[in-house]
Amino acid sequence: MTDRKTTFPFHKGWLIAWLVSLGTVLTLTHIPQAAMPEFLSEHMLDKIEHVLAYGLIAFLFLLSLPEGSRPTTFVIGLVGLAVIGAVDEITQPFVNRVASVGDYAADVIGILLAVAIFLVKRRFRFDTTSL
């Protein structure tokens, strides 16, 4: 009989932060439009919010992955997040909000920016124990 130790494939703290942020964003995007401050839809502020929100969610997901994770896990997670963004937009009319291709594009841009920042961070990581 072999003693197999089963490990959880994510960093729990980052995974929890990812789930909380995802839940928060999905809740906020389903507040009826009439309850939202009007200035948020002016001057493209809502697009910046989408970039930041989905960028944060993607970055937290990437941080939750342990070192040496398979690239397929990386890709499936990010594609899954893009699908969640699409479903998020598609379901907004059910709560008197407007689904927007522009908002979805901003979600995807946020995801891609998070990936770029994560990859740069990983590439230029340095040992802080010697400082």
Brief characterization of the structure:
α2 packs across α4 and α3 (about 70-90) runs antiparallel to α4 (about 100-125). This protein has helices at about 10-30, 45-65, 70-90, 100-125.
Description of the structure:
With 131 residues, this protein is mainly α. It has one domain. It is built from 4 helices and no strands. α2 (45-64) runs antiparallel to α3 and α2 crosses α4 (101-123). The longest helix is centred in the C-terminal third of the chain and has 23 residues, at 101-123. Residues 127-131 have low confidence and may be disordered.
Name the helicity range: 55-70%
Low-confidence stretches: 127-131
Q: Overall 3D geometry?
A: elongated
What is the domain tally?
1
- Put simply, the count of helices is 4
> How widely separated are the two ends?
46 Å
Mean pLDDT: 85
**Main sheet attributes: strand count, strand direction, barrel closure:** none
Order of helices and strands: HHHH
- Quickly give the structural class: mainly alpha
Count of individual beta strands: 0
How do the strands and helices of this protein lay out in sequence?
Elements: H1 12-28, H2 45-64, H3 71-91, H4 101-123
Task: Write a concise keyword list for the protein shown above.
elongated, mainly alpha
